[in-house]
Amino acid sequence: MFGWKAEVLVALGALALGAVPARAGGEKQTGFLDKVYKGPDGAEAKYVVFVPHDYDGKKKYPLILFLHGAGETGSDGQRQVKVGLGKAVKAKEKSFECIVVFPQSQKRTWRADSEDGKRALAILDEVEKNYRVDTRRVYLTGLSMGGFGTWSLAAAYPDRWAAIVPICGGGNPQTAEKIKQIPCWCFHGDEDKAVKVDMSRAMIKALKAAGAQPRYDEYPGVGHNSWDRAYATPELYEWLLQQKLK
Fold first, then answer.
1. What are 189-224's pLDDT values in tens digits?
2. What's the half-sphere exposure (Cβ side, CA atoms, 13 Å) at 12?
3. Which of 8, 11, 13, 31 has its CB surrounded by the most CB atoms within 10 Å?
4. Predicted TM-score (pTM) above 0.85
């Protein structure tokens, strides 16, 4: 007759010791998490969000939006995590300090006016709603096709990004005036055959002419894959975390 009282006492004791998971079933709350975005038309798109292992919802976290290259286009929701920033995060997963959002392009473009570009921003909005994000420290980066997307989204939404990191991409130099206030660190290999290094050089030249002071690393003898080296640069993340919107 006292069975229910015993169960209540055991449950209360477990709570006091912190033994009960934050969500029923012990669902994973940090690390690389698979998500599904549902658009206004009901269409679904898989994406991944990385949540720092020390995330507890008590403080705000900086966030990085990562745009993959053309080779990771698809709808499996996983390919985009295996190349570029995802590999770098995985290498230091336990201590990585930022929330990272990995949307996936379905139509091989990240142009700001494209369906994929708009969905990437909608997914970013969703993550900012569901997690404690420091909206003064939201960063944008991408490689190859994602590098083009970085320049495009920066020009379309210049007030949203605390910093941008375009890698082996290109943009429209005429947009330099719009984005000159955004801290920028750009990377490219000088032997890139897929996206000519002149495209990054032109953007950096235009930014400097507009009065900006972008950082630019050009790797001698490096082809299209300049992203592994760029994302493995420890100083990159130190620099990013110093950038904040006013």
1. 999 999 999 999 999 999 999 999 999 999 999 999
2. 6
3. 31
4. yes
